[in-house]
Design goal:
Elements lengths: L2 E8 L4 H13 L5 E6 L13 E3 L9 H6 L4 H7 L8 E6 L13 E6 L12 H17 L5 E4 L13 E3 L21 E5 L5 H11 L5 E5 L16 E3 L3 H10 L2 E3 L8 H8 L3 E4 L11 E3 L5 H4 L9 H9 L3 H17 L6 H4 L3
Parallel strand pairs: 1-2, 1-4, 2-3, 4-5, 5-6, 6-7, 8-9, 8-11, 9-10, 11-12, 12-13
Amino acid sequence: MKVVVSTDAILNRDYYLECIETILDQVGDECELYTLIHKEGSVLGHVEMRKIHSSFLSNIGRSWEDLLKNSYLIPGACKNLFIPCSVDLIINVSRGFSHGIRKCKDTKQITLLFEDVNTLERKRSFKEKVFSLFIKGFQLKSQRQADEIWTSDRNFISSSYDGLVKDVLPPVKLSDYKILPSGLVSGDYFLVNAESVSPNIAKEILEFYKNKDILFKFIGNDIHLSHLKEGSEKYFFGDKCSGELAPLLSSAKYLLDFERNKLPVVSLKMMACGGSVFNPGNRYIDFGEGFYKLDDYLCAKFLDLPDPLVEKKKIRGRAIIFDEVRFKHFLKKELLRLEGGKVPYNVSDDNCC
């Protein structure tokens, strides 16, 4: 069975790329990649060693922000980037667009739909606003191209496609996030998940702590906070790979994560390091050891956050159940099912997701 992977973009080492790598580990070294936009040489590792097919958008944009600014071109790019009929199975890892890449009618497609990146809060150009309904219609209509849609959040999927949907948690690579010996942990700063925080709250945090003797950093994708960075660059760590992020998480006092609806990936990485997280409430993790309720986002409250004394190993144990190993086990069985029909899909028996 010939399998290829299709994606929205291969641009930098972020959580999205980690998920792509997890799937590539299961489908073999010869698997080719089809992506709307590829910044050549932008990522290290075995991804760049594969044959990568990209659309004309690679000549126009070099970032996620560029892709979104040119979203009105995406339907044309999906039509021109054709996956040949010799392919038996397409595993599509989508952030809202790539599930529409053109394919043969008989080629089976499974879409792992993470989110609709086009719904992220940000400033939009006049052209984006004009074409917004056209793009939204394309996104929803092209979901029908998939034979199955795997997702942890059905809000991004048209209700008329419910028969295609399976509830599957995406993988989280936690092997690089470990508990450091107490002598190596400073604990003199806290972190904020930038992607989860609104510009208004981020501004409030910045203004409150800037002139106080308390250290902090925003970590992760912060495109929507770019207007706040001028003169405050040192407070923004950016979207880094695990090699840079893991030591920062391991040494932090705690993490503030405002993510409510999506799988709280940054929180899980923090907990894998044995660290504490404060969150207003997320449907994937119950409050308990290592994951505490943040009742109010007012900055004054942050100073009064407790410093829970719990065993770091117990916190890590709560996070590790979301590790990529579980998803790999699930994917392996699904590939066997699709190839030979010998392993039926059954979540209760699979006990993997």
